[in-house]
Amino acid sequence: MARKIPDYRKHILSIRNMDMDDDVIICAFAKSGTHWVWKITSILRSGMADYNGKENAPVILEFFPAEMIRHSPKTRIYNPHFTTQGLPKQTFDKKCKILFFKDIRKMF
């Protein structure tokens, strides 16, 4: 089943109004190693490095409906590819952690 692409303006507004508690946001350009950082962060958050056979894809805010993200388990790790204006308003007011890549090298 193909996913319907949402109206981007409505989608950004719904993300901007999303609640965030103790979530982690990885801020970097696409193709700069964000999946590796997401994987390491998820291992650190879970407290174990055991492979459980399930691959949980990183939540890229642009591609998933806000309702689906809201109902996912807490302590989520987000991997957005847009600027800070697109992040939820509570990102900077609550206990969210932001992982910012200071130096990158794009991988192709």
Automatic annotation (TrEMBL):
Residue spans crossing the bilayer:
none
Offer one Pfam family short name for this entry.
Answer: Sulfotransfer_1
- In this protein, which residues make up the domain named Sulfotransferase? 21-99
Q: Which GO terms describe its molecular function?
A: sulfotransferase activity
Among InterPro entries, the record links this protein to: P-loop_NTPase, Sulfotransferase_dom
Q: Name the Gene3D superfamilies for this protein.
A: P-loop containing nucleotide triphosphate hydrolases
Write the protein's name. Answer: Sulfotransferase domain-containing protein
UniProt organism field = Mytilus galloprovincialis
